[in-house]
Amino acid sequence: MKIELLEEVDSTNTYIKRYLGGNEDRIVCAKRQTGGKGTKGRSFMSQEGGLYLSILKFYENFPAEKAFRIMAHAAVSVCKTAADFGVAAQIKWPNDVLANGGKLCGILIENVLNGKFVRASVVGIGVNVCNDLTALRRIAVSLSEAAGKKLCVEEVREKLLIHLREEDDFEDYLNLIGFLGQTVHVFAPDGKFLATALRVLENGNLEVSRNGEIMALSAAEITLRLEES
Ligand code: BTN
Known about the structure:
Blueprint: E1 2-9, H1 12-16, E2 26-33, E3 50-63, H2 68-84, E4 90-92, E5 96-99, E6 102-114, E7 117-128, H3 143-147, H4 153-165, H5 170-176, E8 183-188, E9 191-200, E10 206-210, E11 213-217, E12 223-226
Parallel strand pairs: 1-2
Antiparallel strand pairs: 2-3, 3-7, 4-5, 5-6, 6-7, 8-9, 8-12, 9-10, 10-11
The site of biotin has 19 residues, from helix 1, strand 3, strand 6 and strand 7.
């Protein structure tokens, strides 16, 4: 697969979309981003020392109802990469990767649909490796901090690319979800409530129990805060 290495770009996700007109899978990495994008329209701090990459992948006959698998595979790959450096990372549904209670990585997926099928996906991954997180202290953590030694971005990138190429297995994702069985704060458009997280369904929805009532929550509609955070 073609890999492009950039010094600086606004956002690797935005940049890689210029190739959507073709049909060739590729990867774009940048040392820093000036307009890193997060989920729900947020920005993503992207100073040098972090790993910022986007993968463009084209599909044939990939049903949109299975699109969550793309996200799950990316999150699992990051956890496996962290494990390569001795860090036990976990996934905060749907796709934040946490270590030592802080956010280690964010993932932004932008799918291009063709009817009921995914034609292409842009998977953007930002991992804190050895970037300065002073402004995000208590929220974010770097892989170097969690590993207890300064890690090199290129080395982390190589490991991540290996895991991204591996076969995806949804069981791995389920095993890495860190808070099942726990009480979570759910922030919904019509207010917030407490619920017990039960399981993640294959379509990506989170099944919770709220006062004995079982309901499925969509990540697009709600935000979750863990009890201890
Ligand atoms: C989030 O946590 O809200 C998602 C953050 C995703 C950040 C990555 S960094 C590489 C790619 N380019 C972007 O602009 N965003 C993603």
